[in-house]
Amino acid sequence: MSIDFIYSDLMWAFFFLVLIAFASLSFLGRKQSDTRRKQNTTKLPPGEMGLPWIGETMDFFNAQKKNKLYEEFVQPRIVKHGKIFKTRIMGSPTVIVNGSEANKFFLSNEFKLVKSSWPSSSVQLMGKDSIMEKDGERHRFLRGVIVTSFAHSGLETLVSKICNSVQLHISKNWHGRGMIHLYRSAKVLTFNVVFECLMGMKVEPELLPTFERVLEGVFSPAVNIPGSRFWRAKKARKEIENMLVKVVREKMKEIMEGRLKKEEEGLLLSKLVCGIINGEITEQEAVDNMVLLVFAAHDTTSFAIAMTFKMLAHHPDCYTKLLQEHEEIRKEKRSGEDLTVEDVKKMKYSWQVARESMRLHPPIFGSFRKTIADIDYEGFSIPKGWKVLWTAYGTHYNEEYFKEATRFKPSRFEEEEATRMGPYVYVPFGGGPRLCAGYQMAKLNILIFLHYVVTHFDWSLLHPHEPISFDPLPFPSLGLPIKISPKISLTAPSQI
Ligand code: HEM
């Protein structure tokens, strides 16, 4: 090899190195200026992130504990920063959004731009295979099974089952008593109704405290140390799981041996078990979704019932009108005759009252989403991986949507006025692909319970100004004790 050749090789290598260095520098320079340009155009929403990790968590929890999350945390920040603002809660950068446009944008973009986001404790306790953790096709499939099981049973069957459960509950727990904790009573009833209507099961009263122990851990830190709330909740979840696995396996045997009763075919439990037999659903999915449904139905419906009674007690003119509606329905019934779907359809004013009560006291404050892409919204950028909290209060308490927003006025939901209400304004049941799957059942439960109570008892609140607490959902702090006395009526009594 000649020296010339070596020399020219070295020249080439040197030239090459210079070229690479130049290319790298210009690439880095371009990248830096890209980042700078991006930083200039990236406008995060206004708001304060507070200290690292902690952020504004303490303020958030303190307000939540008093059930004043909107008044003490959200509203003052709306005044300071506007309807969309950033904060940091439990380590997560979070954007809180308010207003019907924001509700629509974030709720309807589920799976595309955002996905539902629950704390680790909730996921572990409700189960990672429940509908709340599923996306896209799997979510659509499981939701289909749940919703069609309600539709398949038919409204008439649902009404008849709820009537039986309500009458049984009242005759066992209300008669002969002068005082009832209404919220507690509604909880026991809702628990029985869910098991009866979804699984065709009568449950032992001892099972309710076990379920409640699970609920207590749902929003507590996921620390599995003996004695902690989460540890107790996990133990309770295991007990429930063992019980439900047995129920599922027994039902599977029944179906495979052709012993399933005709009237049980439409039940959610039967549908889930058929799904297991056909290889479409796993046993864990069936169990997790049953646990989730009890959780989703239980505290929400009981709180809605409790708040409806509370608002009626504070508005005697509304109560007179509501009572008249129920007395008219009752007058048309023979002794002991159950309500029908047609009767429930006549409870128009009662549903206005219940809706207005849920506007002022939404059982669910709102819920968290996680962004799965960088989002540009209203001139702000929300980076991928941040949390978004949409709120029901942000529209329910806004004068832009509801004049005299803090006033109890059921006539807002009269047909004509309600049709003028825009979409995503009234959102106690959420919206978009995750709209509450149990809306119909909640409505029937509230109206039928109202009917039997107001037509059979005179009642009054024992503590008219009882505060609302929060753990992990809102509840009347004393359980809404009411004084009751059986009605002496001249019209034909329905037997309870
Ligand atoms: C007054 C009573 C109720 C209220 C206020 C309520 C409220 C809500 C809300 C706001 C959501 C949406 C949560 C989100 O977007 O993250 C939801 C979802 C859900 N609710 Fe309800 N709910 C009630 C009763 C029920 C009942 C009785 C059931 C079933 C028996 C039920 C089953 C569900 C299910 C399965 C979901 C999840 C839907 C999905 O992810 O696709 N709810 N509910």
TrEMBL record:
Heme binds at C436. InterPro entries: Cyt_P450, Cyt_P450_CS, Cyt_P450_E_grp-I, Cyt_P450_sf. Its cofactor is heme. PROSITE patterns: CYTOCHROME_P450 (PS00086). Gene3D superfamilies: Cytochrome P450. It is a single-pass membrane protein. One of its GO terms (molecular function) is heme binding. It holds the Pfam family p450. One of its GO terms (cellular component) is membrane. The chain crosses the membrane at residues 12-29. Belongs to the cytochrome P450 family. This is Cytochrome P450. It comes from Acacia crassicarpa.
